[in-house]
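Notes from the pairing session

We agreed to fold both candidates in a single pass and log them together. This is the raw record for the first candidate, unedited. Please don't reformat it; downstream parsing expects exactly this layout.

Candidate A
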Amino acid sequence: MEDLGYKDNDIIAYSKVASPKLEAITANSSTPYITAFSDLSQGPTVLEIPSRRS
């Protein structure tokens, strides 16, 4: 993880939907993707997502 330049609990949200250049197994072009890097050896990680307002 650190070799890629990411720190513990970094979250990456792709700004566009997947294209053929995204190297992900079974990715499709209508789904937004998010990647997270968490080191759970020090305990659990909690991610709180606020409710969506209309």
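Candidate B (folded immediately after A)
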Amino acid sequence: MTTSPRPSMETHPDIVEMRLRHEMAERATSTPKGQAIETMALLTGLYLAASPWITGFNALSTLAVSNLLTGIAYAVLMSGGFGRAYERTHSMAWASCALGVWAIISPWVVAGHVNITRTIVNNVITGAVALLLALAASAAARAAESSQAGRGVPTSYAPGRG
């Protein structure tokens, strides 16, 4: 009775696919452009969190708390700490876009009369920068997927596929 040799764990299809996912996420974030986007996004999130105290509208507590929480969430999402697979990197970039939009509109929608010139200028500029960086991160993740597909590497794990 002969038994066929068992395939190695390293050649198992699930292991190979997991490696491909990791390589794609690394390729998107390990380029100088990807690292610059990640660094600028982290700084933008930290600035947004601290902006009420930097620009002097911390007495407007509803907007100060909103900026603090939004800035921390943005910094965590965009720092790449949780995005080591393409799906997470791509979806976190889109969630960060929503946070950028929130930063832009928040002076007009949070409770209280907080839409003064200082808060509007701060939040619109910071929110626009956050939105642009999140869009750039999403584009970088999408470009990494396109380069993989162009090489004939299966991308069945990408959102909306198989």
